[in-house]
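USER: I would love a firmer grasp of how sequence relates to backbone shape in proteins. This is the protein in question:
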Amino acid sequence: MAIAKICGIETEYGIHRSNPGDNPVTSASLLINAYIAGLKRAQWDFQDETPGNDARGFVAGAGTPPEIDVHLVNAVLSNGARYYVDHAHPEMSTPECASPLELVLYDKAGEEIVRRSLALANSYYPGEGQLSVHKNNSDGKGNSYGCHENYLMDRNTPFARIAQQVTAHFVTRIIYTGAGKVGEEVRSGGEAANFQLSQRAEFFEEEIGLETTLKRPIVNTRDEPHADPRRFRRLHVIVGDANLSEVATFLKVGTTALVLALIEEGRLDGAGLLLENPVQALHQVSRDIGLARTVELVDGRYLRPIDIQWELYRFAREYADDGGLEVLGDEDAGKDLLRRWESCLAVLEEDPMQLANVLDWVAKLQAVEGYMQRHGLDWQDPKLKAIDLQYHDIDPAKSLYTRLRMERLVDSEAVAVAVACPPASTRAYFRGMCLTRFPENVASANWDSIVFDLGEGPLRKVPMTDPLKGTALHTENLIGQASSVEDLIERLGA
């Protein structure tokens, strides 16, 4: 049986400061520190970090600790999220969410937190030294940064089967999850691309591997479950774009969660959806805005990406009819997901431009082509790349995305609540509420534990190895009735 698809998103934001003397690390630190100053928060606990563990059975750099700069800002927020400097980028990791729709909400809450950070930071440096932040995936100079998804999976599902059967989905889902891109930064043969579906696709060079910044693989093998490793694995997905479209995020996470559930239950065994050359296919699909070119399968068939998505949809539809939507945490949202998946594929077949208020790549393409026509420009004009970048600007006064009236799935009031409050459906609730109730006593936290400082005696570490424990159902009364952190610890022990 497939297990609940607890999910999360880690987004690295592009950042630039007009003061040429500052480097990106300094800029990212200024941005985050402007927001967290005076907030209820805790430091991140690095003790259990094991990013070198490989699902294929070995440990990269065994015997040496992970390379982590503990001096950079790295905070846990009251909504259960992690907000930190990752190398040269500000990064926002959502709290664990129990459904794709809930994850859309907390992804948007993350955007709002970064937006507030930007306003605060720029208020401290009026005039010269202003920051700009973009939710995109490349700097236009050959450097890419990520938007990583995470999905809880059953440890008993062989990783080799996961990697084999999920690849076709990762390659072809960009027809609705791509963020769109003017031009190209990495040549892969053939004619130059004027426009691509995906910002990230051209930066991938391997089918499978552990790296995330060099020789990026379509399927990442990091085996760091942030949960009980005997029961769970976490599929760390690095191949996706950072989406502003709420529908694109909903489809990206929801369809992938369903495909992973199908794999866990063995429903894709023998389906034959195996690509002959996945890396080549990924590059090809991204460059085909007409969605007409076929990719070669191992069994000799040639299918369009949309044909592969239709096949996966049909498997998911059958699974849903058998009660499979429970893995998405919200059956009503699961039904909406299937409806949107089917509708999106149908419209993409008929006329993708009808989705200009739904999908990022279509919205951006329409905006760029409209600008070209109005001003008589060709694809080589540098103004087009400026429009591309403007689409992703987090500042609402500058953002092209905010002007396009894209379809919403979550309202602004719910986002405002999610900025401060954790989801009730996962262990993120316990993490966030402990930080709200007892901020002075939370020494540090990470995904699967929280460390309390009682003021005297040793620190007390509370493990949280099951993402579905520590929910509001389990702990709301416990936290609410505790008169002190000592009382909470005692109640937990009982």
